Amino acid sequence: MVTANDHAPDPAAAPMRQAGLATRPRLVAALAIVVLAAAGGVYLGLMVADAAQAGSLGRALFAALCRADFAREISPGRFALVLLMWCAMVLVMMVPTASPMVMTYAQIADTAARKGERVASPLVLIAAFTAVWFGFALAASVLQAALVAAALLDPSLRIAGGLLSAATFLAAGAYQFSALKHACLTRCRQPFPFFFANWTAQPIGVFRLGLRQGVYCVGCCWAMMLVMFAVGVMNVAWMAALGVVMAIEKMGTGLRFTRLVGAVLVTIGVVVLAWSIAAHWPAPSG
Fold first, then answer.
1. What is the extent of the structural domain holding 56?
2. How many angstroms separate the Cα of 243 from the Cα of each of 4, 142, 144?
3. Taking the CB of residue 271, how many other CB atoms lie within 10 A of it?
């Protein structure tokens, strides 16, 4: 339990008996972010590469993802492959957006370490944050299976239907204007007061802080992540664009950019809706 005495590093704390990277939290944090994002990117790259270059794992994964009977003939092994895909996606798209939060913790920890105080490794914080997003990946995998079972996802892993695609864009755009979105985004943008007020050197305490930050991040970004179902789960261009947008959001201070993104998503939704209605509009009889 965090007390008032835990609010900031204690100069009287016992000196650390650690060496090497353990005394360099900022370096550890930066390396961890790069390695995790790169690992996710490499995995996704192998998955979408030519089967001859990707090897047996790539062939098995791509076949499992794209087979139309995925959800009708569900198996633990096949579901695990889909879950691995979503986990790789959150590593690529979400871990980099956590850089300001993680580096803020690392900077505070680095200051404490230089004073000889014990600090928990930023790896603990990153592990907790990532665990929350892996939970989202599990939920997204279940949703993907449900969409295929209902014949609402085509073999390219995109929602098969203009109306549902439009609804996805409209919902994601509307969420950009919601109070919950703004509250979670504010928490993501202001990590220093959060860590200063809840500071602890205990790994379990830091893990809890990482879980809380992960929940704030999911609350901020879940709707935009679900847009991937409307554009194609493995659409690399959209994956990169949404990742950049979410990163910019967290680095900002106001709501102008967030609302602009919401307006763009709503506009896309309206266009997709109009296109879908027009495509099914009965042709005039001669």
1. 19-277
2. 37, 22, 20
3. 12
Is 283 part of any domain? no
Number of domains making up the chain: 1
Query: Dihedral (C-alpha) 12, 14, 19, 23: value to the nearest 10 degrees?
Result: -40
Rounded CA gap, 72 and 83, in Å?
17
Does the predicted TM-score (pTM) go above 0.70?
yes
Query: Does some domain include residue 284?
Result: no
Beta-bridge mates of residue 159: 153
- As given in the structure block, the two tokens for residue 94 are 């979400």
Locate tokens 């798209």: which residue?
93
- As given in the structure block, the two tokens for residue 141 are 């995998």
Query: Could you tell me the mean pLDDT of each successive run of 10 residues in the chain, 286 residues long?
Result: 46 42 81 95 78 46 48 68 93 95 94 87 96 97 87 77 91 97 95 92 95 97 95 88 94 91 97 83 58
Phi–psi pair at 70, nearest 5 degrees: -50, -55
Two tokens at 168? 């996805």
Domain-located, residue 33: yes
Any domain includes 232: yes
